[in-house]
Amino acid sequence: MSPKITGELLRQLRQAMKNCKYFSEPIQAYIIPSGDAHQSEYIAPCDCRREFISGFDGSAGTAIVTEQHAAMWTDGRYFLQANQQMDNNWTLMKMGLKETPSQEDWLISVLPENSKVGVDPWIIAADQWKNMFKALSSAGHSLVAVQDNLIDAVWPDRPERPSTQLRSLGLDFTGISWQDKITTLRAKMSERKITWFVATALDEIAWLFNLRGADIEYNPVFFAYTIVGMNTIRFFVDLKRLSDPAMREHLQLDSPSKPELSIQTFPYESVYTELQAICAALGPKDKVWICDKASCALTQVIPKTHRSPIPYTPLCLGKAVKNATEIQGMKMAHIKDAVALCELFAWLEKEIPNGNVTEISAADKAEELRSQQKDFVGLSFPTISSVGPHGAIIHYRPLPETNRTLTVNEVYLIDSGAQYVDGTTDVTRTMHFGTPSAFEKECFTYVLKGHIAVSAAIFPNGTKGHLLDSFARSALWESGLDYLHGTGHGVGCFLNVHEGPCGISYKTFADEPLEAGMIVSDEPGYYEDGSFGIRLENVVLVVPAKPKYNYRNRGSLTFEPLTLVPIQVKMMNTELLTQKERDWVNEYHRKCREVVGAELERQGRQEALEWLIRETQLII
Amino acid sequence: MSPKITGELLRQLRQAMKNCKYFSEPIQAYIIPSGDAHQSEYIAPCDCRREFISGFDGSAGTAIVTEQHAAMWTDGRYFLQANQQMDNNWTLMKMGLKETPSQEDWLISVLPENSKVGVDPWIIAADQWKNMFKALSSAGHSLVAVQDNLIDAVWPDRPERPSTQLRSLGLDFTGISWQDKITTLRAKMSERKITWFVATALDEIAWLFNLRGADIEYNPVFFAYTIVGMNTIRFFVDLKRLSDPAMREHLQLDSPSKPELSIQTFPYESVYTELQAICAALGPKDKVWICDKASCALTQVIPKTHRSPIPYTPLCLGKAVKNATEIQGMKMAHIKDAVALCELFAWLEKEIPNGNVTEISAADKAEELRSQQKDFVGLSFPTISSVGPHGAIIHYRPLPETNRTLTVNEVYLIDSGAQYVDGTTDVTRTMHFGTPSAFEKECFTYVLKGHIAVSAAIFPNGTKGHLLDSFARSALWESGLDYLHGTGHGVGCFLNVHEGPCGISYKTFADEPLEAGMIVSDEPGYYEDGSFGIRLENVVLVVPAKPKYNYRNRGSLTFEPLTLVPIQVKMMNTELLTQKERDWVNEYHRKCREVVGAELERQGRQEALEWLIRETQLII
């Protein structure tokens, strides 16, 4: 991987920063956040501005360019990758390390007095704007909204915004009609005396209307906004997408069942002026809900006295708790996904000794096998297929120039997942096709102990996921080891593979309590730089638990694994496992064999079935 | 315990709320926070305003009185106690429960439009003022500073503010001179370009000057403020206290070694006007450090552009990391404390069957035995001596009208501690002097497992204590049990028994990372309302750990128990313990026997020594 040469680009950007065509005065620094106008984590090519200017294409990162410096903040998953993708013009700011300054502190330390710091108000979230604004102001600088995006100004061949075909989902996939979702939303609005709700997150809008798109790779969403009032629904989207009769029928565009369920459609771009018009007509007591992570541009349209910012919208919370239909779909999707992976691993076991399998061909094979499964739509994120030292690059993605061959001498880590119409998957397995070293086994076993500690944890109703994070680390910590990422994220149902408002991470405090029906990943790891990486990831469903007692009638919860792919016994040092942990592994493997075995048999995939049976032998 | 009758008092308070003598317009609600002008947790009798108006005397709680309602917010430790101490005029707001509204939300729900909510600006912390101000403003109400305290206005016989004799501590107890502490503070100020520092927390001022007082029961502090500039030190205190020649010598009041270490003394009350004078003379770049938990009144004297609020002051952070002399003192104090407790328990074992020991007499005996130890000053908090159902009242304090007799049929919980000149102790043991039930043993054992899980945890340098809280709960959670308080708090060295900025609690996110030299308590519990309470508390020292590996050279930490009092084996269901847990108990008891046994022998306390030997037999 050779870094992107950015000298000339940065020169042009710095010229634009001084050009009063874009802002009345020159600006001394320009912030380029990751993300788009919807604060999406994964973004369309037209929105990959931070990658364009720096070369760094990880899913999280913020660039800041001043007259003298260019700096990139990203987290532990991407330290190695960012270092490899960026040239010497860039300084990597390793988030999470004690010595790394915050963006604010760094800006204050490098800027001349009374500096202006520019940012595109559509790309920066309102809460980030607020914090940055405050910090800069208190140090005598100012944060200014530059309406024209300065990266676009130096990006001649920037791609078009995508407008893919929409797909409507019936009740057999969603469990709840969009009309019922609107009614529930309005009930919550009226409970909190809210008159308007502005939805800006793409997955929330897709979930609300039971629609899916393909505007962003891996994320079945589409560019849109929605404003819901107590009697009106405004839907902002490229109108060409609504011409299909079936789509018009799904949305009841031509014959709404009730007037308050009639959807008014508007072009995507008109959300700003339409929201302005709504706000101009607000009564003195009218309140508008908008997520505090929505764009600064749209948030500031709403007068402060009418604005009611919330950390998580009712759509976000509603979407997180899966209904019975969605849970059933997620289970089906994970069985199909396990079938594909069992086939992959059986194939790898056979092929690797021949020396013909590479990181890329293994990833391609995984995709090919998944695509044979019913209702396959695409991958849910770029497959991380990594051998040996590449495994330590936490979000590694094999490229032709980095592609390594799988051998019987190195650890192989594959983190992959798919979108099926009935659900989204995300699974990581770490395997050795020869004889792992004692140290590799030891680390794998600590990671497994952490994975089990979370998966088998019983905890009271109302517990926030971040309180479980240390369980995943305890065994590693005891040996002086750790990993620099969170332990789990929410997973959508045929939606984004990362979603809020729950997760399992020491980095957050504002996550919502776990509830039965929520779905998160459980993925501790260990990364030995330059040598190997280990991660073990299942997607797990929050389910009620029934322990012996029930303190204050609070009830208890635990997790049920949805992912049903064997965990390689060869990588375990079973002596380090407690009896309880061995029982967990055996019970998990029993379920894999029973559930996935039946499906492999039904699909007539004999070799994979044999592999599954071999890999799910009892451990003692 | 019969509740305080508050009808007439509330009537008078509501009259004062309408009286324009106190504020230009009537106020519709009045907030009575716990605490004094220094935001102390434990307070002097003259500052017990919340207790005076409500009857509830727990260490934490906020009262709000409106024209119609009187409500009290407190946490899980105090639910039972508050219910018993307050009459029907009061509504208990159980903090930490999902259905309990915040103070802001509750006010907004009960107040008529455009209400005024009053509070004494000296008693409310600046950060609380800010949050409350914001929440009320956004709902159309206003928060107003009422300079005269309205409780004082209806409290005819309010006690005087205490002014006890000061005690100076030499280097043999403090390890660092106050002059060196000032120099270190100024180095931190100049590093952050701060020109002034305002100290308002009483324990920080006591620590800084190596002085102790007795103004607040159990807390060896004295009423004072300090303002430190780069060349000046202003000390605000009742000047009568500085007349003693030894005190003048300690503070070098008459012959300072260097001009910048010369202390200017001022009356306690003049801090406001003196800070005003300092602020009037500030240069454009001058910055003033003040804790964001300092009083709103004093904080607002500093113009916003010059104010640099910090969550924890350098004194708070410096005080938290104990130096070698302080650690040695804390160890000595805990050995002496263990001697007293071994004697107490040996005595209880002998006396309880006679039926003459009550909660109060047991607590008195504990105090008597402690007072026989060298450099004993007093208790560090009111002894919680509780039998059977009283044990479930987490901060129970026996009173003549509640006093129960200790028997061989009920669980006995004693949470007690002392101030010695060399250190502060805080220890809880739960015992049964007959035959505990299987359920009592089961619960005790889960609590013990939690205690050990924290105490034996190994974790990376830089870990915040709140990330360890779930370790203490895991065994309880697994059986559907829990406890509604945090797991640990910082402990001062001959200072407050509760101190920041570290602790072990799921409720915080803003604690500072644990560092070697910090001292915290480890005290999980289980409370069966109406039946019994269990808590196991040791004070533990953060020490470096040396696990097998050292990931990224971060280093690891663990805890060393300073408390060395046997944990009753009779209460354990040893079958529920793992081998590792049994090893921990045996090693802990070995150390108790070795260290405390030697001291018991030295002091010739034979019966206690025999008890210690019996209680520290190996478990298998």
Automatic annotation (TrEMBL), chains A, B:
It catalyses: Release of any N-terminal amino acid, including proline, that is linked to proline, even from a dipeptide or tripeptide. One of its GO terms (cellular component) is cytoplasm. Its EC number is 3.4.11.9. Residues 329-542 form the Peptidase M24 domain. Residues 27-147 form the Creatinase N-terminal domain. One of its GO terms (biological process) is proteolysis. The keyword Disulfide bond does not apply. Metalloaminopeptidase that catalyzes the removal of a penultimate prolyl residue from the N-termini of peptides, such as Arg-Pro-Pro. Contributes to the degradation of bradykinin. This is Xaa-Pro aminopeptidase 1. It comes from Maylandia zebra.
